[in-house]
Design goal:
CATH topology: Ferritin
Distance between the termini: 55 Å
Bound molecules: fe (iii) ion, magnesium ion
Number of helices: 6
Shape: elongated
Oligomer: single chain
Number of domains: 1
């Protein structure tokens, strides 16, 4: 924990840690939802969907690491038990219990749209107050915007194929 690094945060540091821990819970749940989805998914264009879901799972895990590092840098503690993920999550967890590609993609699109809102709100909250967290949230937001677009394009292609 760097004292000068913390002292330049021009807002309640515990509030920043709280926002980051909620996002941290979201990232783990998103990781698991993608990871499991990539195992069970079935239906047309399955291979392309598996590739995308697997990549996104790795991105969400990397986001969890980035967020955890910032929490620790601010003198906080990343949520110490998986049970806490459900107490703190903004976006929740959508179990991939229906394996069909369209259903899995729709669930993950909903998750990405929630993640976009979460990071956009964090950016508004810390803007001009915590530049380091701002930069982190912006990097992650860029990934989430890309994720949403990837999944929506894939879903469109599948729907064309199914002539919907
Ligand atoms: Fe993420
Ligand atoms: Fe994402
Ligand atoms: Mg992608």
């Amino acid at each position: 924990m760097g004292t000068k690094g913390i002292s330049i945060v021009n807002m309640d540091v515990d509030k920043v840690i709280g926002l980051l821990n909620k996002a941290f819970a979201d990232e783990w749940l998103a990781y698991y939802q993608y990871w499991l989805g990539s195992r069970v998914v079935a239906g047309p264009m399955k291979e392309a969907v598996i590739t995308e879901l697997t990549e996104h799972a790795q991105d969400e895990l990397r986001h969890a690491e980035m967020v955890a590092n910032r929490i620790i840098q601010l003198g906080g503690e990343p949520l110490i038990t998986p049970q806490k993920w459900f107490d703190e999550t903004n976006c929740g967890y959508d179990a991939p219990s229906d394996y069909f590609v369209e259903k899995i993609l729709e669930q993950n699109i909903k998750g990405e749209q929630c993640a976009i809102t979460v990071y956009n709100d964090i950016l508004t909250e810390v803007s001009n107050k915590d530049h380091v967290t701002y930069n982190l949230a912006l990097q992650i937001l860029e990934d989430e915007v890309e994720h949403e677009e990837d999944l929506q394009s894939l879903l469109e292609d599948i729907e064309v194929m199914l002539k919907k």
